[in-house]
Amino acid sequence: MLPLIVLLLHVSAVCSDSHSLWYYKTVVSAPGSGLPEYSSVGYVDDREIVNYNSDSGREQPKVQWMEKMEDGYWEEQTQIGKENEAVMRHNVRTAMVRFNQSGGLHILQVMTGCELRDDGGVTGYHQFGYDGREFLALDTETWTYVPTMAQAQITVQRWNNPDIEVGERWKNYLEIECTEFLKKHVENGREDLERRVRPQVKVSGQEKGDTVKLHCQVYGFHPRAVDVKWIKNEEDEVHSYETTHVLPNPDGTYQIRVSAEVTPKDGDRYSCYVDHRSLEEPLNIVWEPEKSSVWVIAVVVAVVVLNVVTIALGGFIFHRKKKVGYKTTSTSDISSDTSSNCNNPGKA
Predict the structure, then answer these.
(1) In angstroms, rounded to a whole number, what is the distance separating the alpha carbons of residues 268 and 271?
(2) pLDDT score recorded for residue 61
């Protein structure tokens, strides 16, 4: 299968109560990839809340609290999903022309969303990717589009035309409509989104000659944001040679492993530092060389065996209703429309 851009869900600061609403849309140029030809997945923070794809042909809730939305919401969102599907199918064909591609399997992806920070500030995103690479993105300082590939120049020139003002329309949407929906979703799902579960921690070391590979496994925590690192002598941060992404567990909690390779000297003391919103004070779990062959358990006595669920989603590595009408672009170019659920990517 052609590689997709791996989705890394937005992670806020450990002590932050910020929230985000994101939609990730993916279209493939031809069937046979094992994926729906078109899909749109919506998230509040790290929770999948809605899903539309070309196989089901309907917008569907993925968490129980989304069923609190008013009558008519799902029919309206299904119609928007169908419109988005048509636009995205057009866009991937346009992109293929731009790249002088007559066939093969190609993937167009769009990330749209907003974040409401705990200080009241709002951040918005509208970004495109093609075949695993960034294509173009909205600069939210100037509200103009910036190409990251030469093939995106035509679209950017058209969207930045003062007569069309695509960026200004997305500004209004991201700062007002998207945040209004985000607030509504957070209110409906607050118990789920803001529940706090303390992390469980275990440390180990693999000794080989003069060096030791230290491992710190942190698991069973919620929400997703966490800070994990190795500390030497209670003050110096140790460079991590390997850090996994924060991965989901079947019970809705998360896990991460941070490893470091060190050469201990007499008197050196290594500990795993863990900070999480559920903790009153950060944890410091000390690795003891004489116990390097066993797990040292913190927080709980029993070890829970967790099965990791790996999620394959269309999205971006980036380092997070009523359709609003405006002038559409020619069908020979990528176009961009806005809709009140972050769902309309616009034609390319």
Answers:
(1) 10
(2) 95
Smallest CA-to-CA distance from 60 within 78, 47, 37, 87 is with: 78
* Buried/exposed 164-173: b ≥16 CB within 10 Å, e otherwise: bbbbebbbeb
Mean pLDDT score, 278-295: 78
Round to whole Å and give the CA distance between 45 and 182.
Answer: 10
In 45-132, beta strands by DSSP E? 47-53, 60-61, 107-116, 122-130
Note the residue count of the chain. 348
**Closest C-alpha among 211, 201, 215, 210 to residue 293:** 215
Contact 59, 52 (CB under 8 A): yes
Neighbouring-strand partners of residue 145: 138
DSSP summary character for residue 234: T
Distance, CA of 109 to CA of 114 (rounded, Å) = 17
Say how far apart CA 316 and CA 252 lie, in whole Å. 22
pLDDT of residue 3: 37
Please name the residue that has the structure tokens 């022309």: 97
